[in-house]
Amino acid sequence: MRITGYRVESYVMQMDRRIADANHPPGEDLMPASLLWLETDEGLSGLALGGGDIAPFFPFLEGQDPREVIGIWRRMVDYIHKVGVVAGGGVISAIDTALWDLKAKIAGEPLWQTFGALEGRVKAYASGIDYCLGDDELFAFYRGMAERGVDGGKLKLGLDLNADLRRIGIMREALSLASPRPHLMIDVNEYWSPKQAVRYLQEIEKHYDITWVEEPARRWDYRGLRQVSEQVRAAVATCENLRHISEIYPLVQNQAVDILNISAGQTGFTGCRQIAHLAHAYELPVSMMNCQAQYMAHLAAALPNHLSMEVVDVAREHCLRFSHHLEDGCIVLGKEPGLGIAVDEERLRALQADPPARKANFPFPRREGAGLYVKAPEPGEVPWQ
User: Fold this and answer.
1) Quick check: 18 and 25 in contact, CB under 8 A?
2) 3-state class of 245 per DSSP?
3) Which residue, among 125, 118, 117, 119, has the nearest Cα to 307 in the 3D structure?
4) pLDDT tens across 19-70, in order?
């Protein structure tokens, strides 16, 4: 079997509610999306939820056996070593994902089995990306997840300490249905400075047992992140916005991170697995970030140091078909070959034919005051003021 071509389709996802963090409190319900198919001479194709400008990388693919995933990944990463993975990592991620999908389809097995997992099952935690939710909406989200057995949640905060304390309590109460002592995580999205993080977290920890604080300082600031980790009880989690093992190694080497947030954005399954193995060598856990259709759970299921995977649970799979679902606090993957995801082409064409009139404000820009002073929400920015 040989790779002969590719196809990329783009569209805009209209989610069923807004998502928001401290950098953009009002939130956004639109998100750009794309799909990549890698085609072969035997009619089998590999799918990725992502795309981009594939043309510069196609010479590394054309005529290759799609099972040579890691060798192809290495060639692509070497090709962009001067400009770095920030410039080309997204395209590599999509290609790598489609290759792994193909590899598992050729073997006639689900991808979690190709990765060597014992079962297609991954512990989940709830993540509302919820800065824009009112208190009642916040409770409803986490209670709904608790009703499905999820015993941990991650709250967006950072602009109003009193409101943060109240909202953590709402999340804890909602999740208490699943556990008398739910896992409480908080996410600042790099808005605080290290000193601010220590000051605010020490106050929060007077009231709550926090499992981890995510991105309490800039993603590359190993001195600041270590300072936070050493002065609070909560674990420090970061790496969501780092794209390659070379960016993450300094954090691990300098004991600046307690939990690594990993994702397909780290040059696909292959790059993400490298980072997880680095963490495992240092006895550090990893946590998989959220994604459409929870497809990264295939890899999470096979990682010995995986803690739990983020589940956002907003409608954004409009043209995707899959059997993956949430059950007893876990993501349960199907047994269909590959990713187990199919595209409804008719629905895709309908989305492309009738795109939203306005442009998506995504990804969020960094908010005024970040790392310097806290700019509280303005009147009307959030419903919980």
Assistant:
1) no
2) helix
3) 125
4) 999 999 999 999 999 999 999 999 999 999 999 999 999 999 999 999 999 9
Euclidean distance between CA atoms 316 and 351, whole angstroms: 12
234-254: b (≥16 Cβ within 10 Å) or e:
bbbbbbbbbbbbebbeebbee
Name 381's bridge partners: none
106 within 8 A of 66, measured Cβ to Cβ? yes
Q: Are 74 and 271 in contact (CB under 8 A)?
A: no
pLDDT by residue (tens digit) across 307-354? 999 999 888 878 999 999 999 999 999 999 999 999 999 999 999 999
DSSP 168-194: HHHHHHHHTTT-SS-EEEEE-TT-S-H
In the structure encoding, which two tokens stand for residue 371, read together? 């790392």
Sorted by where each starts, the structural domains of the chain and their CATH numbers stand as: 3-108 (3.30.390.10), 113-352 (3.20.20.120)
Whose structure tokens read 């959220």? Answer: 290
Which spans in 264-307 are helix H? 268-281, 297-300
Contact 68, 265 (CB under 8 A): no
Closest listed residue to residue 112, CA positions, set 260, 271, 294 = 294
